[in-house]
Design a protein that fits this description.
The protein is α+β, with helices and mostly antiparallel strands. The chain folds into three domains: about 100 residues, Orthogonal Bundle (Butyryl-Coa Dehydrogenase, subunit A, domain 1); about 110 residues, Beta Barrel (Butyryl-CoA Dehydrogenase, subunit A, domain 2); about 150 residues, Up-down Bundle (Butyryl-CoA Dehydrogenase, subunit A, domain 3). Helices cover about 50% and strands about 15% of the residues. The protein contains 13 helices and ten strands. A four-stranded mixed β-sheet has the order 1-4-5-8. The protein has a four-stranded antiparallel β-sheet with strand order 2-3-7-6, with no helix packed on it. The protein has a two-stranded antiparallel ribbon with strand order 9-10. A hairpin with a 2-residue loop joins β9 and β10. α1 runs parallel beside α4.
Length: about 400
């Protein structure tokens, strides 16, 4: 992939250090992922060894404390790595390879020292897999209404309930689970976070089959009387909802970043095809209608990425009121995923029959658009949350 659909990076966002790391990740993707990604997507999985290989270049540990095995980095290192992984055009692989990115932050921020030392280093080394379990069959985005309970019984919590749509849920060794520790409190104040080991008796997992993200294992989890040590509580009882909401903001920014990069992948593939494919004696790229489609794609990518970078810069430098930043995070996810949707659709149209064939990035990303628009908070939820934060 060239950088034709990308403006030169702003020096106040990406320094030479950031670009050096970007080059490292790009080489890793070209060497370890791109040659295999179609086969892995068809197989519905990828080797666990990829976690260790990614950890070896500092990719798994990016942004985590060095004392826990992390890689010192700022927000733009994380953005650069997400963009480069997206070049492979396989959201399922990226989602599972990075599932620790939504599972570990609450633990690092609020967990006990002993719990962090036990869980975080092996995950960042690529030896273990971590997943986040929030969504429930009847809850969706309504986290405050979750029904999975964790009732204290001596030195343990007894967990009962279900979670669904859990990325890396089938093979995760550690699960950061949202539970209701105060069954009498049906609102956000009764929600806590609990670390559940993957081999806990009473935990069963069922694989889910999906429209897209085939390379990512996605699970339905059931907890039947699972006894979880009380020491596995992340933070204090009743503080889980705030931690979850904070975690969602980071997830949404990364999804917006990825959506821009997936849109770019579609545009690049469409351009390459348009230059090569000839109809009626001329390349598709010589047709004005095709050039207009490509320019429309470029414009949407630029607009979405500018919003994401500006937001990231403000977050990095802590500029702006929290309510405004939350609102713009929601808006960035909406704008970026809509750009991805547009570019995937136009790319498949330009590729024509080839765009309908499995094995092209555009076909795969076309199937993956909807999970980007729904996961981490649906487009409708994002717009409503942004409106409330802005006082509209």
């Amino acid at each position: 992939m060239s950088d034709l659909f990308r403006l030169p990076p702003r020096p106040d966002c990406f320094t030479p250090e950031h670009e050096a790391f970007r080059t490292t990740v790009r080489s890793f993707v070209e060497r370890e992922i791109a040659p295999h990604v179609n086969d892995w997507d068809e197989a519905g999985s990828f080797p666990r060894e990829l976690y260790r290989k990614a950890a070896a270049i500092g990719l798994i540990g990016i942004g985590y404390p060095e004392e826990l095995g992390g890689t010192p980095a700022d927000l733009f290192h994380t953005i650069a790595s997400a963009e480069e992984l997206a070049r492979a055009g396989c959201g399922g692989l990226q989602a599972s390879l990075g599932s620790h990115g939504i599972a570990l932050p609450p633990l690092v921020a609020r967990g006990s020292s002993a719990l962090k030392r036990r869980v975080v280093p092996p995950v960042l080394a690529g030896d273990r897999i971590a997943a986040l379990a929030i969504t429930e069959p009847g809850g969706g985005s309504d986290v405050a209404a979750l029904r999975t309970t964790a009732v204290r019984d001596g030195d343990a919590y007894v967990v009962n309930g279900e979670k669904t749509f859990i990325t890396s849920g089938m093979r995760a060794d550690f699960l950061t689970v949202a539970v209701r520790t105060d069954p009498a409190n049906r609102g956000p104040g009764g929600v806590s976070l609990l670390l559940v080991d993957g081999d806990t008796p009473g935990l069963t997992r069922t694989e889910l089959r999906k429209m897209g993200w085939w390379a990512s294992d996605t699970a339905h989890l059931r907890f039947d009387g699972c006894r979880v040590p009380a020491a596995n509580l992340i933070g204090a009882e009743g503080e889980g909802f705030r931690a979850i909401m904070h975690n969602f903001n980071s997830e949404r920014l990364m999804m917006a970043t990825m959506a821009c990069a997936y849109a770019e992948a579609c545009a690049e593939e469409a351009l390459a095809w348009a230059r090569e494919r000839k109809t009626f004696g001329a390349a598709l790229a010589e047709r004005q209608v095709i050039r207009h489609k490509l320019v429309d794609m470029a414009a949407r990518i630029d607009a979405a990425r500018a919003l994401v970078y500006e937001l990231a810069w403000r977050l990095q430098h802590r500029i702006g009121a929290e309510r405004d930043l939350v609102a713009r995070t929601c808006m960035a996810k909406v704008v970026a995923t809509q750009a991805m949707q547009f570019c995937a659709d136009q790319a498949v149209q330009i590729l024509g029959g080839m765009g309908f064939m499995r094995g092209t990035k555009s076909e795969r990303l076309y199937r993956e658009v909807k999970v980007m628009m729904i996961g981490g908070g649906s487009e409708e939820i994002m717009k409503d949350l942004a409106a409330r934060q802005l006082g509209i």
